[in-house]
Amino acid sequence: MANVKIPFGKTYLEAEISEDRLAGILVSQAHHYQPESSQEELVRNSLIQPIASPRLRELAKGRKKIVIVASDHTRPVPSKIIAPLLLEEIRAGNPDADITFLIATGFHRPTSREELIVKFGEELVAQERIVLHDCRDESMLISIGKLPSGGDLVINRLAMEAELLIAEGFIEPHFFAGFSGGRKSILPGIVSQVTVLANHCASFIADENARAGIIDGNPLHIDMIDAARQAKLAFILNVVIDSDKKIIKAFAGDMEKAHLAGTEFVGQMATVKAIPADIVITSNGGYPLDQNIYQAVKGMTAAEASCRKGGVIIICAACNDGHGGDAFYRWFAESRGADEVMAKIMAIDADSTIADQWEAQIAARILLNHTVIIVTDQCSHSIVTDMYFKAARTLAEALTMAEEIMGDDAAITVIPDGVSVIVR
Questions:
Q1: Is 133 annotated as catalytic?
Q2: Catalytic, out of 73, 174, 259, 323
Q3: pTM as predicted
Q4: Which CATH number fits the domain that encloses residue 44?
Q5: Model pLDDT for residues 339-352, shown as the tens digit of each residue
Q6: Residue limits of the Lactate racemase C-terminal domain (predicted)?
């Protein structure tokens, strides 16, 4: 028997699978990568030798208003390490800089003070100015132009008033933007809901290039990179993390070139060959990415790429925050099934995009071809089943359910961390 450990919240779920049924285990090489130095040294060295850019301390000279765009509570960015080193570098060049952390909430709920403390540490939260972006608060926003797709680019006013705009974040495969990090700090991070909706339209999400690991020809990426250019994002510090959320690589410098270097590294580490199976077990990488069903769709896409049509996907996700979006939930709860959800969404043109339809579109795509069982003991199972997923309290229970559908001898592929891999 093979023992598999699947991230779940801040812990793991385990299962015993017979060797003759285990088709394979797909993991990112990043989880086994041995960094050449400590997390702090990796970040500091990237700041000392930025890619295609002067040092941040040089850029900060003479710049009064400096804004650092930082990820929100849904991203496992190790800001406790990154943020102090960014501040140190900026103040080395400009001790009197007026610095603001702008939290890139995108379309998510606001980050709570408790979550900010977990992210940054109590000292930084107490001492630094932190502003939460709100994509629906028009008083915070300003229109600055158009996107290549024709959508309006409406962005946080603080970012546009900055004399130096910086972003921190991390790079991992992203299920429709290709990769996270870089330009994503701007769009969707700190733009208006109007801009997010235009970028996340049905035709873009349905595009064959809107997949994990793909940037070239990806229509969402094209809009995102243009938004970051128009926002004058001058410098980024993006890290790559392993399964323990520890930094294994850092990329600092030019918004485009540093991010590209990071995506090339992640692509090499994360790309795995699909091992088709009737049952695929995966996760959303544990906390903080598995707090709700909305986010868990990301992990489902990795399983989708290795699950035979008609097969069963089991995703372990705590979902302690419930569905993660009322609009997302209602797409399913107020429909008669995934086929109806998909038909309605594909009939919506880009100018009429509805909040969270992109997540519902991808979830429906998966449900049209697979049975999906969500393993959670922290979310009401009625919410799960309202959305046409099946629910189980334990991984063992989910496996029994899957075997009832696919048979006791069905082959099983395991993808312990679904958001960390690019399945080809």
A1: no
A2: 174
A3: 0.90
A4: 3.40.50.11440
A5: 999 999 999 998 89
A6: 272-423
